[in-house]
Each structure stands twice: as C-alpha cells, then as structure tokens.
Amino acid sequence: PIEVFRKDYQPLPYKVDTIELDIQLEPRKTTITTQMTIISSSPTVTLDGDRSVIELQHVLLNGTLLQEGTDYQVTASELTLLQVPLHTPFQLTIQVTTIPEDNTELSGLYQDSSGMYCTQMEAMGFRRFTYMADRPDQMATFSKVRIEADKEQYPVLLSNGNLLEQGSCNDNNNRHYAIWQDPFPKPTYLFAMVAGNLGKIQDEYTTKSGRRVDLQIFAEPHQTHLLHYAMLSLKRAMQWDEDRYGLEYDLDLYNIVAVDSFNMGAMENKGLNVFNTAYVLADPATATDTDFERVESVIGHEYFHNWTGNRVTCRDWFQLTLKEGLTVFRDQEFSADMNSAAVNRIENVRALRGRQFAEDAGPMAHPIRPESYISMDNFYTATVYSKGAEVIRMYQTILGVEGFNQGLKLYLERHDGQAVTCDDFLQAMADANPDIDLTLFRRWYSTPGTPVVKYRGEWNEDGTYQLQLEQETSDGEPLHIPVAVGLLDQATGEEVVSTQVLNLKESQQTFTFSDLAGPVVPSILRTFSAPVKLVPLEKDNESLALAFLAAHDTDGFNRWEAVQRLYTSLIFQHLPSKEESSSSSWNYVEQAFARTLDTCLDNSDYSISAYVLTLPSESTLAEEMDMIDPIGLHQARSTVKQQLARRFESVLMEKYSALTELLSQTKELKFDATSIGLRRLRNVLLDYLCSLTDTPEERDRAAQLAMNHYQAATGMTDQMAGLSSLVSIDTPHRQDALDQFYQQAVGNSLVLNKWFTVQALANTPNSLETIQQLYQHPDFTLKNPNRVRALVGAFTMNAVAFHQPAGYQFLGDVLLAVDALNPQLSSRLASPLIQWRKYVTGKLMKEQLERLLAQPKLSDDLYEITDKLA
Ligand code: B3K
Ligand code: ZN
C-alpha cells in the first residue's frame, strides 16, 4: 500500500479541457469510449485507471491508433502516454470494457440489487470506470455523455446537467440512448450516470431570479409513493439557501435517484444526486421521526453541496473538510431553522461526542485536514465531517453571523469554478472581516485531538468576577477557542451577564467581569461554542454548580448539559471499580429529574425534556473514562436507569398516560416539531418503565405495556419504541411481535433492516446467539451495506453481545467476509475496535486486529485501519 502526503501536492502538467463519453451497456460487457481534449506542458501524460476492473481496448491520439510499449504503457493503476504534442490541444480517444455486474465494491459503475446501473465516483471511483486524471483539481466540461442500453430493461437513462436528446437506436430497435450535457466544468468525482427501470415523482421550483427548475426524484417503481417527503425537503432546502445565503440553483433540472446498495448516505453529483434509499424514502408507516429528520438533512446537505463543493471544490482530497465541514454546518443550520435549534444542537453534540471524540482519542486521530492517507475513503470521518462543521461554526461564533455570511459570500465569488484549499477559505473569512485576527485560528486545521478547557472562577467583594481559563491541546500550543459565557446570580438564579464570547488564545487567560451585585455562577461553553472537553480546575463544588445550572440556566443547551454531567457522575459511582457512592449525587439527579418530569407537559419543548431525561449513551460515557470496562459500564448505566424508574414509577406512568391522551387527540400522524417531541418524550418514559423487570409481576407489566404500545402505534416511531422495549423482556409476546413485524416488512427492504437492528440491539443474555442466527437468515446479505450495518453495525453497539471473546471473534469473521466484497464497508465496520487500548478486554480486541493483519489478501482500506490500530 502507498501512503500519499499532503505536502507532496503537485499541479498536473496537463489539462483535460472537455470530455465526451459514450457508454454502451450490455449484459456483462459495458463499453466506455472517452474522447478528451488535452493540452500538455509535458511530453508524457499519465492517466489513472484501475486495471483490475477496466480492460483497455485501444488508444487513439488525434485519430491515430497508438501502440502499447512504444506509444504508451499500462500498469495496474496508470496509463502513460509517452509522446504527446506539447502546448497544442490534442484529441485522445480511449476505449475500455468493464463488467459492472461484478463490481461488489460499489465504487465506479455497478449494478444495484434491483438491477439498475449506477455510479459512485467520489473519491476515486472514476478510475474504475475509465482512464482519466482522477483528481478534484482537474475540472473538465462533460460536453456530451451518450448512454445506450436496452429499452425495456433500462427505460430511464440519466447523467449530469441537461438532457440534449434521446431516442431509439437506428440499427437496433430494442435499444435506445440519451445524450446529456453539463455546462459546468467539474472534476471526475462529480460525474454520475444511472440506467434503470425507475418510477419518479416530479415537481418544480422557481428561483428568486425566475429560473424554473424541474425537480425529479426516481426510485424503483413500487417505491415512488415514499418520495414525497424528500421532494418537500428539497424545495425547503432550495428556498432556505436563497433566504439565508442568497444562493440559487443553476441548472434547469435537478434529479435525485434512490439506490438500495450504497456505501454512504448520498452523493452530490452535479444535477444528479444519488441517494441511499435509507435517506430518501420515508412515509409514516415505514419511517421513524428520526428517519424523517435524516431525510430532510441529507437532502439539504447534498443540495447545499451544489455551491459548497460543486461550484467551488477541493484542490486535493486532503482539503475534504473544505466542502464537507462547511456543508454539514449548512445542513445543521437548515435543520435548526426547520425544526428546533436547541434540539438540533443537542443532537449534533451527542453525535459528535459519541463518535468523533473517540476517533480523536484513538490511533486514527487526525486533524480535520489530514496529512496523509493510504485509502482516501477511510478519511470520510466524523473528524472531517462533524468536527469540521464545528470549526466552521466557530468562525461564525467569532465573526458573528453577519461577518460569517460576508466571508462566505466573498469565498464563493472569489473562487467560483475553482478547486481550492482550506487556506483559501480562511483567507476569504479574514479578508471579509479585517478587524478580526484569524491567524491563530488556522491551527484548527492542523491540530488533532480534543482540546481540554479548564476553568476556575473567583468572586471578589469589589463586585468583580474573574474567570480563569486554561487550555490543553495535543501539541501543547494554544488554539483560538471561542468560549461563550453567561453569568447567573447565585442568590436569585437570574442571568446577570448575558452570553458573550471570550476569545481564549493563550494557554492560560483570565477574564474579568465587573459591576456585579453579588456572587455568580458561570455558564460556560454555551451552545457548545467549541469542540472541546470542559472540566473544572476544582472538582469540589462541581455537582452543586451543575445542579444550579440544571435548574436556572437560560441556555437550553447548557441546562441539558448540566443534567448530563450529573447523570455521568452518578453512573460512574456505580461502576464495579468504585466502592463508594455519595448520596448527594443521587439527590442532585433526583431533583433535576423530578423537576423535568413534573414540568415536561407544561411547555411545548417536549424534545428538550426528552433529551434531559435521557441518560448519556454508553459511547459518550466511555469517552470520559481512562479505562473502559464495557460490561461494567453497561450495568452501571442500567442500574441508574432502573433506580430512576423505580423512584419515579408512578409519575412516569402518569405522564405516559397524559401523553398518550394528548397524542390520541389528533387522528392523523403529524411530523411537526411538537408532535415529534410528544412521541419522543413518551418513548423515553416507556423505556424507563420497561426497564423494571426484576420480578415476574414487573416483567408482565412491562411486557404488557410495551406490547400495547407496539400494537396501538400509529406510525413507525412508536412501533419501533414498543418493539425495542419488548425484545429486551423475557416474554412470549416478544416473538409474536417480531413475527408480526417481519410480515409487515415483506417487500420493504428498509423496514426489514429495522427488524434486524431491533434484535441486534436487544438487551438479553443470549443476544450474540440471536445475532449469529440472524447472520444466517435468508434475508441477510453481505452485498447490501444497509443490511450489513443494520445487523453487524448494531451488534457492535450492543455491549453485552459484542464485548466478549466470541463477540470479537464474530466481528473478525464478518470483517474478513465483507472485506473480500466491499473494502469501504469492512474498514468502517472495524471502527469499534479503534480504542482497544482503553478497554479492559483490549487484548482480545487486538487479537482480532492481528488476525486481520495476518491475512494475505486484506484490502488497502482495511489494512490502513487495522495497521494503525494494532
Ligand atoms: N460526498 C459524499 C461522500 C462520498 C464518499 C466516498 N467514499 C457524500 C456527502 O458527504 O455528501
Ligand atoms: Zn457532503
């Protein structure tokens, strides 16, 4: 395997100006003819191409057939032309053949399980399609893309841009063709084509300057009724980008295609997004509220890429966060505006802590702009995406919304049509905001690891309050950290200093607040203003202060955060290694829980209440530990959950019933923030109530409740909540409900995935056996990444099933099987082993890594991950 370094970037010595593609789809033999106009300043031209999937047929230069050996050379990954005209444009024609039916990696041109042909080119799939300079700074105009296929089997033929022409083939009436043209130059990774038997829904959108855009979303014909929410989300996203950033769509057509076998969430190909079905298909009967939220955000994300990614793209793949961090930030702001900003922030931070913090603390830690890679596909990480989005958010926090918007405007104007770097982005932000110094801020792009910010406050009798902040970073040098702070009066709980942003730029800095009437309690890092860990320098009164913030903080995020911290310390006291637990911890939690529960129906922030009542996840808790005992942690968390359930059983039941009543008042299922919040809250209460299963009577009661919940459910959210509770209870209802759900899933692959997941997550002593049986189930297949994630991905989150010798062994077996088919998928599935050093069972986890490394035929993707880990 070859490691590529950021510092080695070199511009290409030639440029491909225009490309014409002719794609002939025939069973087990696709022929691709590429014609390009090239101008070169070097006598040799080297193109990328993967000989393991494409077979070179011939090469012509200005119409003359070239000879292998004398005119060109081919290696496993390159085609080199040995003598090309200098500084004058020449025509290169290359013909290759390939068998998309055999492409199980789902990169390049492949066939979906439904039979349609589709492409995934990012990051380096184009070289698995034909020979070309397959890198993002090579932007060419795809002036003509002709696709030809069997008319009956593949009635729909799509590519980027505008449809120029379509019709039957003269020489063969069973075949037809379509010709597409994309007026915008683009890198290879944004090329796409699709051929299939697809149904669609259509709509239109008129941009603020009057461009009429046709919107089409395609899926398998029996699924088109599931596309309406995606269409609604698309129109909202188009409107929002105009309103918020003045950005309009730039073609007359916007196409989206839903594909069942897809490695990632979706792909922003110019004018032709390709989506994983899981992020585009949704209706109340088959999708949960979270699925709906995800459809909205991914539809938004891919749409927003049209400006941040497509119009302005990355110079090289090390700059990936330039488009991904920025676009995730944009989709987060979109979701925040469409739903609830506070809820959205909590969800995003939960995700960041659960995944990115672990990545940053382990051997795969990398800056948001990595320095090297073996397989670029391994760097589509939580760090590049989620931490990258936090870095963009910090610009906005430091510059203010107006300053940030000016910077973004300048960036897009200055670099429209270019492939640029993170430095260019920072420069635009700096130039648009000359009064603010961003010099130190640059270090966020090169510093891995989660910084720790420590604080200590001191109240003085002269009415001043001094807040001392310290920072620890992975290289010991300071970062520019915006710390949003507010102060609350200790006596009244009222906010006396509203949120202001302190710019922490040194290792240690003291900030003074004056004219205060009395002692104050600080609320620090409001709305999580920087991706750091916040810890007090003195632990003494921490819980007291947290309890105060839990009750009084005006910042919704920090109120939630305070309660989370209280839960965390209580849960940690129940770890097997801890001998004592303090009653004060329990009292603080009890108070905060009681207050939230008592008032949870008084205002419409149901989702916030739901999240406040939810204990931190095992992965978030694990992040706070030096040594992780996963089973002990799982039990400690369960114990606290049961204690709370027992202590508050009657109130939980009372609120549960009240919510049931509220929800039953509206007949039709609604998906506004309030309705989602009501369901979310009721399902959290259900989860507590169903955790009480110590005695046979309790078990019966819990099973009955869960079964009723499941059967009375009006949509997938409640159905899944009922079923999730039920599968963890030892009751005959369990199998009945699962069988019933299976019947319901027939014909819907996404619902079937839920059937696998709910069982893989079940909290039962023999869950591993169940999972291994499901692995043999006729509906299980390694060829569909969604199915694999539904079972195996979920399995690795089930502590009891996964963290045992047989569990690790099972993951090792699966990784080997998957790696032979789909390396992108296998390397992602390996990430639960990432922090083995921190686990008490680490030795056993490492054994699996070593076992993988000993394999002769490991993919580069999985090799890179396992080698770094082991
Ligand atoms: N840009 C794609 C990711 C492609 C992944 C390649 N392994 C999805 C997105 O972030 O929008
Ligand atoms: Zn993206």
Structure, described:
- The chain is an alpha+beta fold.
- It has 25 helices and 31 strands.
- Among the domains are: 4-197, tricorn interacting facor f3 domain (Immunoglobulin-like), CATH 2.60.40.1730; 313-445, Neutral Protease Domain 2 (Neutral Protease, domain 2); 452-530, Immunoglobulin-like, CATH 2.60.40; 746-870, Zincin-like fold (Alpha Horseshoe), CATH 1.25.50.
- The longest helix has 34 residues, at 382-415.
- The protein is globular.
- The model has no long low-confidence stretch (mean pLDDT 97).
- The structure holds (3S)-3,7-diaminoheptanoic acid and zinc ion.
- Zinc ion is lined by residues 301, 305, 324, 327.
Helix-strand layout with pairing:
Blueprint: E1 4-5, E2 14-26, E3 29-40, E4 45-48, E5 54-61, E6 64-65, E7 72-74, E8 78-81, E9 90-98, E10 108-111, E11 117-120, E12 141-150, E13 156-159, E14 162-168, E15 175-181, E16 193-196, E17 199-206, E18 212-219, H1 228-245, E19 253-259, E20 266-267, E21 272-276, H2 289-304, E22 313-314, H3 320-338, H4 341-361, E23 372-373, H5 382-415, E24 419-420, H6 422-432, E25 452-459, E26 465-472, E27 481-489, E28 495-504, E29 508-513, E30 520-524, E31 533-536, H7 542-552, H8 556-573, H9 583-599, H10 606-613, H11 618-622, H12 630-647, H13 649-664, H14 673-689, H15 696-712, H16 716-727, H17 733-745, H18 749-760, H19 767-775, H20 785-795, H21 799-802, H22 805-821, H23 823-829, H24 842-853, H25 860-869
Parallel strand pairs: 2-12, 18-19, 19-21, 22-24, 25-31
Antiparallel strand pairs: 1-23, 2-3, 3-9, 4-8, 5-6, 5-9, 7-8, 10-11, 11-16, 12-15, 13-16, 14-15, 17-18, 20-21, 25-26, 26-29, 27-28, 27-30
Helix pairs in contact: 1-2, 2-3, 3-4, 3-5, 4-5, 5-6, 7-8, 7-9, 8-9, 8-10, 8-12, 10-14, 13-14, 14-16, 15-16, 17-18, 18-20, 22-23, 22-24, 23-25, 24-25
